[in-house]
UniProtKB/TrEMBL annotation:
Similarity-based family: Belongs to the class-I aminoacyl-tRNA synthetase family.
EC code(s) of this entry: 6.1.1.16
Annotated CDD domains: CysRS_core (cd00672)
Name recorded for this polypeptide: Cysteine--tRNA ligase
Swiss-Prot/TrEMBL keywords: Aminoacyl-tRNA synthetase, ATP-binding, Cytoplasm, Ligase, Metal-binding, Nucleotide-binding, Protein biosynthesis, Zinc
Species this chain originates from: Sporosarcina gallistercoris
Main location: cytoplasm
RNA sequence: GGCGGCAUAGCCAAGCGGUAAGGCACGGGUCUGCAACACCCUUACCACCGGUUCGAUUCCGGUUGCCGCCUCCA
């Protein structure tokens, strides 16, 4: 069985075959760090973290690189407004980024390169393009000669002549052709800058990804990913720069995630409806946010609203509860017997179903459906009087494996550390034995106030936090 | 103008040639001292109109309605 994935380049689902067997080189375009990230920025991070996790689950050795754009117009503007130096500002938001996506369960990439650490590489890269006459200097700027690159438009499936009539293309006196894009920008007075053969300046936006991907992963990478909007022009330009230089395929598979809407409206600065991860995770369990995003296929748009997140929270709760209930049974009453084969088989079937879902273009929505089925099976199993240790353990193990792929690990089993609560639970047990239900219910209510929910089962009292 | 996406139950969302997974919410039942957890049951003319096919939610064409991209927005 192989993984199929939708490749923006070919507009088809293709079998995934990495250049080197067993190894995946993956590059995901990261944020421009001039503010806290919003949930729209978080989607690709979550989605491609999950892709990476699944590839690893599948046994691939994944080299995962995600960059920071730490110098550009917006950053310079923000730094000016805040009266802060650029490096200071970017460092601050890079740390905030790690905190935010860490909370969302995203692993760190193997490398998080920053443009400003690769200035010389950028200059070398551009110099080679100039040598090959794919680029030219003009008044301190350096531009890419778009028309000279044959495949331009192959990713976004735009014909170069249609682009010409596009609404927003702006001619510039410095450009030879309106379609050319900037590789190196001459510095304006007082701007942060580096010396180059073309004078003081800084890298253009697109060049950094080409440079760092090549530097860290080589001429040809397996998967290049990012938000849908990056398809054009960003990724199109990356292809042009890289392939013009190396003459080799830059990236074999291109993956793009869909957008997030807020209450059915596009999230945008001008509407003022963007939601910062930093803020929202104060109110919403970050795992719920992640679960919510993964309940939709990554390429579809997803709508964000209070109601939708709440219903996702309820769903995740159901899975967590099932898990805890199995844990409880294992701790309290696990038998040995010989009735386990059929159940072990059912559990195995779910794992296979999960893999089939994920093999199909990382269909996390279907993967989650399988986990719900696993939860249902676990609950049904717990209805049995005699439950076997091997089966209970198999449930836990499978839950753990599948949820780890989604980056949604279960919390460690908690021991009640509070003696007062312990005593109340004991007292309630006694009260129930004496059929003093008024007292028993009073205790249950009291604990509920404290966020401890009690559940009576045939195997004793079970508790969980609300 | 060009390129593309989407329209499936009250809501969310899979499926993409053999008359519809899953979740949330609602209702009914079972379990429980009562609850909770849970289990079972119930709930869909798959936007509209044509066509292809033995058969279409799934393919093709058209219509309507949303949405994205077309040089620096994830």
């Amino acid at each position: 069985m192989t993984i199929q994935l939708y490749n923006t380049l070919t507009r088809k689902k293709e079998e995934f075959v990495p250049v080197t067997e067993g190894e995946v080189k993956m590059y995901v375009c990261g944020p421009t760090v001039y503010n806290y990230i919003h949930i729209g920025n978080a989607r690709p991070v979550i989605v491609f973290d999950t892709v990476r996790r699944y590839l690893e689950y599948r046994g691939y050795n994944v080299k995962f690189v995600s960059n920071f754009t730490d110098v550009d117009d917006k950053i310079i503007k923000a730094a000016n407004e805040l009266g802060e130096e650029v490096p200071e500002l970017t460092e601050r938001f890079i740390q905030a980024y790690f905190e935010d996506v860490g909370a969302l369960g995203c692993k760190k990439a193997d490398m998080h390169p920053r443009v400003t650490d690769h200035i010389q590489d950028v200059i070398d890269f551009i110099s080679l393009l100039v040598e090959k006459e794919y680029a030219y200097e003009s008044d301190g700027d350096v531009y890419f000669r778009t028309r000279k690159f044959d495949g331009y438009g192959k990713l976004s499936h735009q014909s170069i002549d249609e682009l010409k009539v596009g609404a927003r293309i702006q001619a510039s006196e410095r450009k030879q052709d309106a379609l050319d894009f900037v590789l190196w920008k001459a510095a304006k007075e007082g701007e942060i800058s580096w010396s180059s053969p073309w004078g003081e300046g800084r890298p253009g936006w697109h060049i950094e990804c080409s440079v760092m991907a090549r530097q860290l992963l080589g001429d040809t990478i397996d998967i290049h990913a990012g938000g849908q909007d990056l398809t054009f022009p960003h990724h199109e330009n990356e292809i042009a720069q890289s392939e013009a230089l190396t003459g080799k395929t830059f990236a074999r598979y291109w993956m793009h995630n869909g957008y997030i809407n807020i209450d059915n409206e596009k999230m945008s600065k001008s509407l003022g409806n963007f939601v910062l991860v930093h803020d929202i995770i104060q109110q919403i369990d970050p795992q719920v946010l992640r679960f919510f995003m993964l309940s939709v296929h990554y390429s579809s748009p997803v709508n964000f609203s209070q109601d939708l997140v709440e219903s996702a929270a309820n769903g995740l709760d159901r899975i967590r509860t099932a898990y805890q209930n199995v844990e409880h049974r294992l701790a309290v009453s696990a038998d040995n017997g010989d009735q386990h084969d059929i159940w072990l088989h059912k559990i195995q079937q779910q794992q296979t179903a999960f893999e089939e879902a994920m093999d199909d273009d990382f269909n996390t929505a279907n993967g989650i459906a399988v986990i719900f089925e696993l939860a249902r099976l676990a609950n049904v199993y717990l209805l049995e009087k005699n439950t076997e240790k091997v089966v209970l353990e198999a449930f836990l193990n499978t839950f753990n494996q599948l949820m780890s792929v989604l980056g949604l690990p279960f919390k460690e089993k908690e021991e009640l550390q509070d003696e007062a609560i312990d005593r109340l639970i004991e007292e309630r047990l006694e009260a129930r034995k004496n059929r003093d239900f008024a007292r028993a219910d009073a205790i249950r209510d009291e604990l509920k106030e404290q966020g401890i929910l009690l559940e009576d089962t045939a195997q004793g009292v079970r508790w969980k936090r609300s």
